[in-house]
Amino acid sequence: MLAGKTAIITGGGQGIGLAIAERFVAEGARVVLGDMNGEAVTAAATTLGDGVAVGVAGNVTSSADVDTLIATALDRFGSLDVMVNNAGITRDATMRNMPEEHFDQVMNVHLKGTWLGTRAAAAVMREQGSGAIVNMSSISGKVGNIGQTNYSAAKAGIIGLTKAAAKEVAFKGVRINAIQPGLIRTAMTEAMPQKAWDSKMAEIPMGRAGEPDEIAKVALFLASDLSSYMTGTVMEVTGGRYM
After folding, report:
1. Domain around 79
2. Which residues form the Ketoreductase domain (predicted)?
3. Residue 189 within any structural domain of the chain
4. Could you tell me the CATH number of the domain that includes residue 145?
5. Distance between start and end Cα atoms, the chain
6. Got the DSSP string for 120-187?
7. Three-state SS letters, 102-113
8. Percent of the chain's residues with pLDDT above 70
9. What total of structural domains would you count in the chain?
10. In angstroms, rounded to a whole number, what is the distance separating the alpha carbons of residues 239 and 241?
11. In this predicted model, what pLDDT tens digit does every residue of 172-218 receive, in sequence order?
12. Is residue 108 within 8 Å of 60, Cβ to Cβ?
């Protein structure tokens, strides 16, 4: 479904980002992976295969680093057809105990990083008259989580950003959509205390956590022509949680 297409995936060195990259490559895409962890992203690109993947170390809060991702895609593969803004961090604490620095860090990585990636990719895509951008929000941006005023605010902001940006570039053939994952089994979520895990599981009608590839398949749908008449939408992938 992505034969001949080039995709950039931020946070692509592990977890959901790597699962998206694996799914995209399986569908014929060339991928540029961005990640703060240079060793991890290089190893991920090597695993995906020489000639179809390249890893770039960088910080999504830096416009220069984002520009480097764009330039790498264009220089190595000749196009930019899909942008997945997936990079993220958590700095959880109740509002009373959260340092201001941790609020700023999470907002910068998630919201500013997504804005920089969307802006840079859209600039290329609007000139070529086509492209798909997929922004990673979270169900936390819909309902809010205790201990995540920073994360929930950033993820809610990504929804507003996605809708506003989608309206700006739709007439140029560029589509921008968002995904709101629920509880997905990754190294980050499995590090949660068992009590917190059990509490979240109790809220899921399907009775299980999701797997990274279940997010990747939705990202593939939004990146491909299967969603050709969709823009500004938010797709919940939660096992029915908070429906």
Report:
1. 6-234
2. 5-187
3. yes
4. 3.40.50.720
5. 30
6. HHHHHHHHHT-EEEEEE--THHHH--TTBHHHHHHHHHHHHHHHHHHHHHGGGTEEEEEEEE-SB-SH
7. HHHHHHHHHHHH
8. 100
9. 1
10. 6
11. 999 999 999 999 998 878 878 888 889 999 999 999 999 999 999 99
12. no
For residues 37 and 6, is the Cβ–Cβ distance under 8 A? no
Assess if residue 77 is contained within a domain. Answer: yes
Residue 234 dihedral angles phi and psi, to the nearest 5°: -125, 120
Reference 223, options 138, 157, 125, 89; nearest CA is 125
Give me the pLDDT at residue 192, please. Answer: 80
Handedness of CA 217, 137, 120, 53 (dihedral sign): negative
Contact assessment for residue 155 and residue 85, using Cβ atoms and an 8 Å cutoff: no
Residues with Cβ within 8 Å of 118's Cβ and at least 6 positions away in sequence, in order, are 83, 85, 133, 135, 161, 162, 165, 176
Largest CA distance in the chain: 50
* Integer Cα distance of 54 and 77 in angstroms: 10
**Rounded to the nearest 5 degrees, what angle is found at the Cα of 62, between the Cα atoms of 47 and 12?**
20
Q: In what order do the strands lie in the sheet with 131-136?
A: 53-57, 30-35, 6-10, 82-85, 131-136, 174-181, 234-237
Residue 243 covered by a domain: no
Three-state SS at 15: helix
CA dist 136 and 123 (Å) reads 20
Active-site residues, by number, are 151
